[in-house]
Amino acid sequence: MPPAPNHRPSRRACCVAAVALVLGGCGFRLRGSASLAFVTLRLAGSTQTPIAQALRRALTKQGVRVDSPDQAVLAANEIPQVVLTVGQDQRQRVVVGQTSAGQVRELELRALFEFTLSNALGREVVAPTQLSLTRSLNFSETAVLAKDAEEAQLFNDMQNDMVAQVMRRLSVVRVF
Predict the structure, then answer these.
(1) Cα 107 from Cα 36, distance rounded (Å)
(2) Model confidence over 116-143: pLDDT tens digits?
(3) Which residues are within 8 A (CB) of 83 and not within 5 positions of it... i.e. 6 or more apart?
(4) Which end of the chain is more exposed for a tag (fewer CB within 10 A), N or C?
(5) Could you tell me the domains of the chain?
């Protein structure tokens, strides 16, 4: 006669269920896409920078109609709900370590983005905000092409991170 099946839940299943209940009960949820309180935005200032262009794409993907001096989307008599002014968008590459022979050993990559948000009446909704990111990059003269590609990838990741930070800040804005 075969042994009777064990209908008791395993210890692992109990732990998984307990974690799911605790996380669900505390209000935890994965970060989703940002819901924005506005549908029209004018992009002003430095609109041709890489982060400004990536921000335009992210806003458009969220359903926001983005107007700028180089790409008019709104009708001439239509006033945007908010104006996002890009103050500064910089990328820097700084040598922080050298070998005894004077060759570059380590680089620091820096990205700086500054913006402000105001409503249609010109009242500041988000004060001038400066975002700054830094990444370290070990450098080798024997692998220059690979390190150049790695540097470009790090700058791209920093750009995506900054766009995500700006989108999170814009998602909490309430336009009046």
Answers:
(1) 37
(2) 999 888 898 899 999 999 998 887 777 7
(3) 41, 42, 44, 117, 118, 119, 120
(4) N
(5) 33-171 (3.30.160.150)
